[in-house]
Write a structure and sequence with these properties.
Largest sheet: 6 strands, mixed
GO biological process, one term: motor neuron axon guidance
Order of helices and strands: EEEEHEEEEEEEEEHHHEEEHEEEH
Shape: elongated
Protein name: Netrin-1
Subcellular location: Cytoplasm; Secreted
Number of helices: 6
Strand order of the largest sheet: 18-16-15-14-17-19
Number of strands: 19
Distance between the termini: 104 Å
Strand content: 25-35%
Helix content: 10-25%
Pfam family, one: NTR
CATH topology of one domain: OB fold (Dihydrolipoamide Acetyltransferase, E2P)
Keywords: Cytoplasm, Disulfide bond, Glycoprotein, Laminin EGF-like domain, Repeat, Secreted, Signal
Structural class: alpha+beta
Length: 304
């Protein structure tokens, strides 16, 4: 390998020849150094020297075998054509510009390291941190005082429970018997009710003297005159029943709901009251309820 020093323009060098350094001419039009063999070593004006590599020369189809030496202006690569580690490209300037590479400005606390993406300048951010330099918390996160975890998830408030948002009436004990402990489901209870469905409580809204629950009906095990269908619909419960926890319903939970047909106060939906059975769902009930369905079809479920 031989070194060439570019003369006249200071842009680089390349080529081959004797065992000592030689001067290459500078092409003002192409802004590259030309060796006596006219093999270019384009250093993008960031290096004054280059060496000739015969293997690269052959691999290129005898077009170029030059490798730039000592790239300046925070550049790197065979042709000083990209930014060195710790710097990234300023795309507003050509690669031949002295300030084509900008230093990474990674935040000392928010970033997981000091080296950014050499193309985009994006720093590696810690969990919950965002921004090119990792200088702010991502959506859903808030700043903490910890340098290790500078951004933590914002706590999500639990869904509003209707029974906890209203004062319990003084006559609840005489009005109804709130469910306590685990309730059991049997054929007798199944037969007493007009409908039996598995529901997922999505949300609750106060509507005058009623609570309107938006529910997703997952499975229908028994239908009354209301002809309940699977999918989203409303479940209506009187405000006093909810306040007395007869039944006790919490948004986000799944329940087995057994009740009787009543006219709903709104447009569509089903009604539950203090006489309805609302039991937190257990997957083991599905098989039992299917058996109840089969018995009902055979006429073994006579409503008293």
């Amino acid at each position: 390998m031989h070194e060439w020093v570019c003369g006249g323009g200071g842009g680089g060098g390349g080529g081959g020849g004797g065992p000592v350094s030689r001067t290459a001419s500078f092409n003002e039009v192409e802004r590259v150094c030309l060796t006596p063999l006219r093999e270019t070593c384009n250093c993008n004006l960031h290096a004054r020297r280059c060496r000739f590599n015969m293997e690269l020369y052959k691999l290129s189809g005898r077009k170029s075998g030059g490798v730039c030496l000592n790239c300046r202006h925070n550049t790197a690569g065979r042709h000083c054509h990209y930014c060195k580690e710790g710097y990234y490209r300023d795309l507003s300037k050509p690669i031949s510009h002295r300030k084509a590479c900008k230093a990474c400005d990674c935040h000392p606390v928010g970033a997981a390291g000091k080296t950014c993406n050499q193309t985009t300048g994006q720093c590696p951010c810690k969990d919950g941190v965002t921004g090119i330099t990792c200088n702010r918390c991502a959506k859903g996160y808030q700043q903490s005082r910890s340098p290790i975890a500078p951004c933590i998830k914002i706590p999500v408030a639990p869904p509003t429970t209707p029974s906890s948002s209203v004062e319990e009436p003084s006559d609840c004990d005489s009005y109804c018997k709130a469910s306590k402990g685990k309730l059991k489901i049997n054929m007798k209870k199944y037969c007493k009710k007009d409908y039996a469905v598995q529901v997922h409580i999505l949300k609750a809204d106060k509507a005058g003297e009623w609570w309107k629950f938006t529910v997703n009906v997952i499975s229908v095990y028994k239908q009354g005159e209301s002809r309940i269908r699977r999918g989203d619909q409303f479940l209506w419960v009187r405000a006093k029943d909810v306040a007395c926890k007869c039944p006790k319903i919490r948004p986000g939970k799944k329940y087995l709901l057994l009740g009787n047909d009543e006219d709903s106060p709104g447009q569509g939906g089903v009604v539950a009251d203090k006489g309805s059975l609302v039991i937190q769902w257990r997957d083991t009930w599905a098989r039992r309820l299917r058996k109840f369905q089969q018995r009902e079809k055979k006429g073994k479920c006579k409503k008293p």
